[in-house]
Specification:
The complex is a heterodimer.
Chain A: H1 3-24, H2 28-52, H3 60-90
Chain B: H1 2-21, H2 25-46, H3 49-73, H4 88-111, H5 127-135, H6 139-160
Helix pairs in contact in B: 1-2, 2-3
Classes of the chains: A mainly alpha, B mainly alpha.
Chain lengths: 103, 169
């Protein structure tokens, strides 16, 4: 097994751990953390392909990871603000209790 | 080389799995700090030093603090109440979905002709090169990310601010 495949398997395992957290937990903060883990797994893929790709001198993977980290930070800030707003209105951070818009 | 990768992978996966299974939110947040530090170590292993330090600053430093603040602000009572799993049905369904996704991705990775390329010596990209790239071909994307961060942080403040009645002029 080549190192690139090891890196890809590591990142897909991390993605699945984040997916379990996002699907199986009912605490909103934990769901947000699971989504952050999935974003980090995608970043691992970018770096692995940059490291073992044919043109590492171009630096495309590194640039892309920098932008992804910026977007993930913005997403974390907005998500946490939403959690705090929902908690202020409902006194709860359970996902199932925020169902006012459910059809 | 491979041994270091395996150790880093074990640290990342163990910490993140324990964080996702933990019943204490504070423990989850602190274990995720360990996982993010492990990811920074992976970036160092792969030779992307600047990204590793960005990861350490942003995730280990900033995002973990935001998450800890959110955990403390959304506390239910004075005691650290354990966060229950919602139901076994949800947990089993989530595990099944994640297992299916893992199977599909594992098959795709193993079936791809990826190992034809010989691993070159670790490529290096200096901070000067990165800066020239960011200011040259990627300057529009940098501007857009700046605008996005400004708008997102202003929006976060507006969402999380307390609505006060207009008694103050």
């Amino acid at each position: 097994m080549s190192p690139l495949q090891l890196c890809l398997i590591l990142s897909s395992l991390l993605f699945c751990v984040g997916l379990v957290g996002a699907l199986a937990r009912s605490n909103t903060i934990l769901v947000l953390l699971g989504i952050e883990l999935m974003l980090n797994a995608a970043n691992l893929n970018f770096i692995a392909f940059w490291r073992y790709g044919p043109h590492p001198a171009a630096g495309t993977g590194v640039i892309f990871v920098l932008f992804t980290i910026a977007v993930a930070a913005a997403e974390a800030a907005v998500g946490i603000a939403l959690v705090i707003a929902v908690h202020r209105h409902r006194k709860s951070v359970r996902l199932q209790e925020a169902a006012s818009l459910k059809g | 080389m491979i041994l270091a990768l395996i150790i880093i992978a074990l640290v990342i996966l163990g910490a993140s799995a324990a964080a996702m299974l933990s019943r204490n939110l504070i423990h989850s947040a602190l274990l995720l700090v360990v996982a993010w530090a492990g990811i920074a170590a992976f970036y160092l292993w792969a030779g992307a030093e600047f990204v590793a330090f960005a990861q350490a600053l942003i995730y280990v430093g900033a995002v973990s603090m935001i998450v800890l603040f959110a955990v403390l602000l959304t506390r239910q009572g004075a005691t650290a109440a354990p966060v229950e799993f919602d139901s076994w049905r949800r947990a089993v369904l989530g595990l099944m979905v994640a297992g299916g996704v893992m199977g599909v991705m594992f098959g795709a990775i193993m079936g791809s002709p990826l190992d034809g390329r010989i691993a070159s010596p670790t490529p290096t990209i200096t901070v000067k090169q990165l800066g020239l790239l960011l200011m040259g071909p990627y300057a529009p994307a940098l501007l857009i990310v700046g605008v996005l961060l400004t708008v997102a942080l202003l929006g976060a403040i507006v969402i999380a601010a307390v609505d006060k009645s207009e008694e103050t002029p």
